[in-house]
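Q: How would the structure tokens look for this protein?
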Amino acid sequence: MNRANERSPARQVGVTWRAVALGAVLCVPNVFWVLEVEGMWHSGHPTTISLFWNVVLNIFLLIIFNFIARQFRPAWALNQGELITIYVMLSVASGLAGHDALALTIPAVPHAFRFATPENQWAEMFFRYIPEHLVVFDPELKIIDGFYEGDSLDQFYAWKTLRPWLRVTLWWTSLIAALGLAMVSLNVFVRKQWTEHEKLAYPIIQLPMAITEKGGASGFFKDKILWIGFGGAAALDILNGLNALYPFVPGFAVRHDLRTLRFTERPWSAMGGVPVPLYPFVIGLGYLLPLDLSFSMWFFFVFKKLQQVFVSATGMRVAGAPFLSEQSIGGWLAVFFAAVWSTRRHLAKVAKHLVGVQKMDDSKEPISYRAAGVLLLVCSAYIVYFCLNAGMTLPIILPFFAFFFAISIGITRVRAEFGPPAHEMAGMVNAQQFLINILGTRGFGFQNLGVVPYFWFLADAVIESISCRISWKGLKWRNGRI
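A: Here is the predicted structure in token form.
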């Protein structure tokens, strides 16, 4: 009896096929949910912060299901490993569907053909550089018009409509899969150093781990302070919701764009508005941040504003000054180099293990180091093939994706060590802008310029959600379990 009790925790910690199946089923409504609230309503924006609230809500509902199941069908209750598996699956699916990811790629696929006119001469200028197998190329515009204007279901599901979209979907899915698997391989290489040696905090995973402990039966939900904070934030949200529906109900603005300080006289007007938000969830996540990160966030925000004031006060006429995007690129590259430098000895040992010079114990890794190395090489080769087949040139492909992976590793390190609510990189912090700044558009090449706009979902390193949200902690698949 005692031996059975000793073995039971081991059986409960893991991922089962039912968790994978349930996660796959829940991905569908969650992706629809994200697209609806972000793309259609432009509200809520769950994927703009590090902790996706739609995923947390799903896990909370599953915990309620666990509570009911324990009363009537204990075997149906999910354990913590299963809940965390579902959490990871929903996070990755939401991240891919969310802000600046596939929500941009899908509309970009038919965009050039829909909006080409004799006046803008797009067809003459760059259509020949667009890879036809990666877009819905429809000279007669019948399929594209249905995409933009709506169509009957029988036309939407007709093979002539699905065929071009299916081809495009398979091509882009293969690229995303290669990028994701390459990042998982990189995670395997650094996991031991970051989690066991440096013992990084992984703040993003703290809340999911806490609420799913013992399948949701831990004392976390018995904390009175938790419910006081939850009740205050919920009351504020409900009050503002009622105010939106019934204006006579008083509200309290918390949005970043509803309470803004503005300066009207030069040079202070150059800094633009200074928003004063009051997001309860940001305040809560702020408690998880180290003091040095909290300091740097507000310090560099003020420093950015002062740079804008300085440019205006001195009358600097240099286009692009004070080069905020370029400064951001430099900052993220610095984070990448710092992450690699702190991991250099471990990576050297991994490299020696890969070539057979020195053996390392990789039994706790999700896959062996050599399997991860082979997977990384195969995925990298396919990424290069994908881009060559699209018409890009090798001298651009290699630095383009080197920059992309560098930024992704930098973001992953920041997420693992600090876990800030957001990493704002919208704008020009991307590989194409980085290379164009160095080479110019002519040096970048017209054939490359015709392809990289379709890589905009890589611009903010959105696929890092695959990398930084799968924080392997010694998990390995065994007999249908991890």
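Residues 122 and 135 are 15 Å apart (CA to CA).

Confidence is low (pLDDT under 50) at residues 1-11, 460-482.

Upvote if useful.
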